[in-house]
Structures are given as structure tokens and as C-alpha cells.
Amino acid sequence: MGTDRPNGSLYTKIENSIAIVEFGHPASNSFVSELLLRLADAFDTLSSNSEVSLILLKSEGDRAFCAGASFDELLAISNLKEGKAFFSGFAQVINAMRKCKKPVIGRVQGKTVGGGVGLAASCDYVFATEAASIKLSEISIGIAPLVIAPAVERKAGKAALAELALNPTEWKNAYWAKEKGLYAKVFGSIKEMDKELDFYLQKMAAYNPEALEKMKKALWFGTEHWDDLLLERAEQSGQLALSPNTKAVLSDLKK
After folding, report:
1. Taking the alpha carbons of 34, 58, 158, 138 in that order, is the dihedral positive or negative?
2. From residue 116, how far is each of 13, 90, 143, 247 by CA, in Å?
3. How confident is the chain (255 residues) per 10-residue block, as mean pLDDT?
């Protein structure tokens, strides 16, 4: 049963050197700005926690992993300042995950769209089920996946990013995502995934945390400019959200 809170929910617990971060929202685990800020803060806090060796990122329920950013907030954008602030949410989360000293393990149980794909791509290692199809739908509504593009490209390559972004109505299945490097392992069911995931986490948590930290830093080498890059992309996305073409599409979808 998922949360019914309009601003979503975020829970963190630490067990056996593993921090479990679980987010949820009644609209298919989408993100309102407040929830994105809380998630970024959670990664910042856990990064400096000496009791934590690695982090598991998961979402509530057994259906969608993440439907991306809040559609209602996107509709409400009325000026560039609001637009930049809206798209900066995922920029802050991706940068927090990038700079977090602990490896972030993703658990993707179902479909993920837009910003949710960026979230999965920003994990260091991802377990998924066969139901975990992905789609970047942004261009179909007049915007573009500019903020998450660096994270997706880093994992899957520019060709895969183009295949997703330039075919915004097509779902790519979990095995396609695995082939491209977005997922590390794909399982036939949530039960099967969770069994293997638990074994993996316990094994990883027993390793030298200093080695895990140095490996995490090495994996993200060369992305130091993302603090500025993702905020620039957020501003570009905010401009697109205000374009007459986008407003017309959003108005039609709202009807």
C-alpha cells in the first residue's frame, strides 16, 4: 500500500551498515519539488554517516518505480524562475547521488519514466524486474530530458540516449535497459529480485567501506562539472516549459 500524502513520503532506516531510502507518492511515485529536496538532503546526510557502507534506493509498492516529476507542478509553471526551480529538483538529487561517498544500489520494481530514468541511471548498481520498462516522454509534451541526459548518457551512451529521447512514446523493456548498462541484473519477479538483492547487500556491506568509497569516487570521475551543467540544463528546460507549443500541449492533456 503506497502513501496518500500529497507531498509524498520519504523514509530512511539503517540496518547492518545498509541505509534503506524509500520514497513514495500517490501519483505512481512521482516527485513533487519538496520530495526531491528531501531526497537530496538524505543522500547528503548519509554520505557523511560512518555507520553506513552503502545505500539502497527503492520506491513504495509493487507497480511503478517512478513516474518522474510532478505533472501538476509542471502545469503550474508561470515564469522562468519557477521553471528553473522546478527542473532543478532532479539536478540536485542527481548531484547528491553523484557526490555521495557511499555506493547507491537501485531497486526498480516497475515502469519508470522521465526523471525516474535519470534516478535509476544515477544509481551505481541496479536490480530490476522484467516489469521495469523505461521511457523518456519529455519531447512528446514539448520539453526535453536535458537535466537527466548526462546521467543516462554516462551509463548507456549517447546512442541509447538518442533512442530513448527521440522516440518519446515507445517503452524500452528491462532487458534493453540491461543491455545498455542502465540495469545490472533483471529478474522475473519482485520476490526473486528481493531474494538476490538481500544476499547482495549483505555481502557488499561486509566489504571494506574505504574501498567502496574510493571505487564510488572512481566511477564518477570526470563529472565534477555537473554542479553547473545540470543547473544550466534546468534553466533551459524551464524556458521550454514556458513556450507556447508546450503550454498548448499541456492544456490539451489537462482537459
Report:
1. negative
2. 22, 9, 16, 23
3. 78 98 96 96 98 98 95 91 96 98 98 98 98 97 97 98 98 98 98 98 98 98 98 97 90 76
